[in-house]
């Protein structure tokens, strides 16, 4: 996975809230891109004394990006059915915090990269929005969004960066830990990681 793309990834992922008329998946993604960029570009929010507020705004925006429960379940794959209700809730919370806390700082390094929307494909309640990122040096990277229709709005359940699925990447890591060390060890590692990268 090309981690250098993550600042751009999370700037361009936010999914809009309620709307009177359901926008297309591309419109949904594109609409909120401006809102997120506004946060990271706000001169007032960039001031050191506003760091906590800025991070809270970023976290709020990131929180609207993902269907965390869907992503967590897909990342756990076959191990999900072995968890009880309390474990599932805890894992979703840990996974959501991991995503939010891991990339809040990276979002702030957004540097006017250009997002070009290429193609949209809808198949029932599922959709894919294909795009590319163009940097100031004119380097280009593919960034595709996988969305599903839930509760009357499109939400992102996976992102594919240069052909690598974010959910699949986590699934591989989680499966290896659970298989070799057990589920309890995965939870321990997630708690430790979240504490290490917790937001101010």
TrEMBL record:
Alphabetized InterPro entries for the sequence: MlaC/ttg2D (IPR008869), Tgt2/MlaC_sf (IPR042245)
Keyword list, A-Z: Signal
Pfam families assigned: MlaC
Gene3D superfamilies named among the record's database cross-references: Tgt2/MlaC (3.10.450.710)
UniProt signal peptide: 1-21
Record protein name field: Organic solvent tolerance ABC transporter, periplasmic substrate-binding protein
């Amino acid at each position: 996975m090309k981690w250098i793309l993550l600042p751009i990834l999370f700037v361009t992922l936010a999914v809009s809230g309620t709307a009177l008329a359901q926008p297309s998946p591309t419109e949904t993604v594109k609409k909120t891109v401006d809102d997120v960029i506004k946060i990271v570009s706000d001169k007032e929010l960039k001031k050191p004394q506003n760091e906590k507020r800025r991070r809270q705004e970023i976290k709020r925006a990131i929180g609207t990006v993902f269907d965390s429960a869907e992503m967590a379940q897909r990342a756990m794959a076959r191990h999900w059915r072995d968890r009880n209700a309390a474990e599932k809730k805890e894992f979703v919370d840990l996974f959501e915090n991991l995503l939010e806390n891991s990339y809040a700082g990276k979002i702030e390094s957004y540097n006017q990269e250009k997002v070009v929307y290429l193609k949209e494909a809808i198949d029932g309640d599922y959709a894919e929005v294909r795009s590319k990122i163009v940097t100031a040096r004119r380097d280009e990277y593919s960034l595709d969004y996988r969305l599903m229709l839930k509760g009357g709005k499109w939400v992102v359940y996976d992102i594919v960066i240069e052909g690598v699925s974010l959910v699949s990447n986590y699934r591989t890591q989680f499966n290896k830990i659970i298989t070799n060390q057990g589920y309890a060890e995965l939870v321990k590692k997630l708690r430790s990681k979240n504490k290490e990268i917790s937001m101010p």
